Amino acid sequence: MDFRSSDTITGPRSEDVLPTTATAAVKIVIVGGFGVGKTTMVGSVSEIRPLTTEETMTEAGVGVDDNLEGKTATTVAMDFGRISISDELILYLFGTPGQERFWFLWNGLFEGALGAVVLIDTRRLEVSFDVIGRLEERGVPFVVAINTFPDAPRHPVDALRTALDLPPEVPIVDCDARGRGSCRDVLLTLMRYLHALSLQPPA
């Protein structure tokens, strides 16, 4: 194989280099059931080219994996991206795999996480119950983002809160996982929620 100097990898792309003004970094986890849009969200909001671990779904997974019409790939380890909230504050985003057989990887992804976004598809609310339960068991603060799929039913916030058995203080917001601005708003909501929690006196 003919390797030319232009083929040699010399380091990260200039747009991927961490800003010199950054003084603090926070780890955020994007969680949710299979096919709710986690990979899309990380890719939409990340200011660097995201790392993904998607693999093609095959017939070997029939009867083992979840299945959605039209979905041909699934995350098997994690998605990773980065976003600058300000000149000083950087968020590292980790998207979890949605297939339940890969959930054992969540433990490592949760380590050191300041908070989480739970991405919800209202067409399949039931896939979110165990996800939320795992966060509550680990004591990870989270906000809920309703991914607005075009054909998904819309429900009042109070009805969703009841269905998901969420306490009144947990924020619920709409989100278009394809839109950078919408995803950024979700992350800012999480930051404000975490800040509010930090101001509460110890129990």
Helix-strand makeup class: alpha/beta
Q: Please list the strands of the largest sheet in the order they lie side by side.
A: 4-5-1-6-7-8
The geometry reads as globular
Using only C-alpha atoms, the radius of gyration works out to 18 Å
End-to-end Cα distance:
64 Å
Average pLDDT number: 79
The total beta strand count reads 8
Tell me the strand percentage band. 15-25%
Oligomer: single chain
- Provide the low-confidence segments as ranges: 60-65
State the helical fraction. Answer: 25-40%
Quick overview:
This is ATP-binding protein. It contains 5 helices and 8 strands.
Would you spell out the secondary-structure blueprint of this structure?
Blueprint: E1 24-31, H1 38-45, E2 54-56, E3 73-75, E4 79-84, E5 89-95, H2 106-110, E6 115-120, H3 129-138, E7 142-147, H4 157-164, E8 172-175, H5 180-199
Helix pairs in contact: 1-5
